[in-house]
Specification:
The protein is mostly beta strands and 465 residues long. Helices cover 4% and strands 42% of the residues.
Length: 465
């Protein structure tokens, strides 16, 4: 999983956080990508997890010949992974030789290894309209390697709900609309308020639609804001199987929120880029029921505390019937002129008052750090620092706000060499040019492995090939 697979949810809420804290300016570079690995995120919400399923082919000990079994699966959010037959997988052996072979009907393919003592292996796979995914640093001890190819773009087979909200309290209010089931997310920023909205939901699935109207002002500290939520609305939406116009009225459908206030700690390392005057935060309430795509709570106030170690907050949230696994999510974001980074932690349960330590991960940092205009060779190797342990690690390449190539490393890795893509893909066409943006993401999973609990993302950087 990766931060990107908190699809439509964490992505949308991070964007809103940026807008709320920057007076409406939402730089594309600070938007998390939507397609790809977790990403948001779900029971398998993300790119291939390092804990791949057990397979039949078990490589022998280092220094001997063996084999690598690869299981490729398609994932269409919010569904479960399914076997991906006929996908060409590229295999880079420890001795540097490369071979390619298609998966069978069960999504599996096996490659021989002449001698594991020569180093590590990597595998890469891609299919049309899906993310390119690689796994590097494979050893004989890894067993079967899993690659999950997430579909890019909006969910397939969803139906559109749309409309124009009425009785919106102020014309300048920004609007959010989401659902209590897995859905896309609608959110306008403060530069483009309006009453028209649209979300995509699964067919034949009843849900509740949640809407909010809000406006925001900055605080004197420069690291906080007050967000006035002028209204909440909640609508019971019956199951539909085609595009449907829905009425949301902030008077007729008014909902009364619960309010709470408290604080949450920043990452503990004082030298972290997530400390300092360029960082700020955001909270929201979502649910595992919606695969972290529903938004049922919003920040009303946020500011840095007196000693700069925590963010103080106010929050409003609804408690829709049918939500069995609510989640409270904490964000800290750096939006510096020369670099950016962010960290998110989600905890199960309704928000509570008082001091909190969500255990936010520190953002990884490239070595050497470079500048926003520094171009790094894609196939020249990458090195970085991480400041947490027991984390999954991936490098992402981004196009139009979506992760289009995810390269997963061993846990706690601090370097990688990017493998060549399979011969079935034109990399320049996938990335849109010979230059692309990238980031590094670290993350941790829930105890059950069904969603991402924490993630931190490095500054964006530029690669070329």
């Amino acid at each position: 999983m990766s931060l990107s697979r908190l699809p439509f949810a964490m992505v949308g809420w991070i964007v809103l956080a940026l807008a709320a804290c920057s007076g409406g300016e939402t730089p594309l570079g600070d938007m998390d990508a939507e397609g790809g690995v977790e990403d948001a995120a779900e029971g398998g919400d993300g790119p291939p997890d390092d804990a791949a399923p057990d397979g039949d082919a078990e490589p022998e000990a280092d220094g001997t010949a063996g084999a690598v079994s690869v299981l490729v699966r398609f994932v269409d959010w919010p569904g479960d992974p399914v076997a991906a037959p006929g996908v060409v997988v590229a295999f880079d052996a420890p001795d540097g030789t490369r071979s390619e072979a298609p998966t069978g009907a069960d999504g599996r393919v096996s490659f021989d290894v002449a001698d594991w003592s020569a180093g590590t292996a990597s595998v890469t796979a891609w299919a049309e309209d899906r993310q390119l995914v690689s796994r590097v640093g494979i050893t004989a001890a890894d067993g079967e390697v899993g690659l999950e190819l997430w579909r890019l773009g909006n969910p397939v087979g969803f139906v559109e709900l749309s409309g124009t909200v009425t009785s919106i309290p102020y014309e300048e209010d920004a609007l959010t609309v989401s659902a209590t089931v897995p859905s896309t997310f609608f959110g306008s920023d403060y530069l483009s308020p309006g009453a028209d909205w649209s979300v995509m939901v699964p067919p034949s699935t009843p849900c509740k639609l949640i809407a909010s109207a809000r406006r925001s002002t900055a605080r004197p500290s420069g690291r906080g804001f007050d967000q006035i939520i002028d209204g909440w609305a909640m609508v019971d939406q019956p199951a539909v199987d085609g595009p449907t116009v829905v009425s949301i009225d902030f008077v007729a459908n008014a909902a009364t929120p619960t309010t709470v206030a408290g604080s949450y700690l920043l990452p503990v390392r004082e030298e972290s880029r997530l400390h300092g005057p360029a960082s700020y935060g955001w909270l929201w309430v979502t649910s595992a029921d919606s695969k972290q795509s529903g938004a049922i709570g919003l920040t009303t106030m946020l500011d840095i505390n007196a000693d700069g170690t925590a963010l103080e907050f106010g929050l409003e949230y609804l408690q829709p019937a049918g939500i069995t696994r609510p989640m409270t999510c904490y964000l800290v974001n750096r939006n510096g002129a020369s670099d950016s980074a962010r960290s998110v932690a989600c905890e199960e349960g309704w928000p509570t008052a008082g001091a909190h330590d969500p255990g936010l991960l520190d953002a990884p940092t490239l070595v050497p750090p470079g500048t926003p205009s520094t171009r790094r060779p894609l196939f020249g190797g990458f090195t970085w620092q991480i400041f947490d342990h027991g984390v999954h690690v991936a490098l992402h390449l981004v196009r139009d706000g979506a992760y289009v190539w995810t390269i997963v490393t061993p846990d706690d890795a601090t370097s990688l060499s990017v493998p060549q893509p399979p011969s079935t893909i034109n990399l320049a066409e996938l990335l849109g040019s010979h230059v692309a943006q990238g980031d590094l993401t670290i993350w941790q999973m829930s105890a059950a492995g069904d969603y991402q609990t924490k993630a931190a993302v490095s500054e964006l950087f530029i690669v070329e090939f």
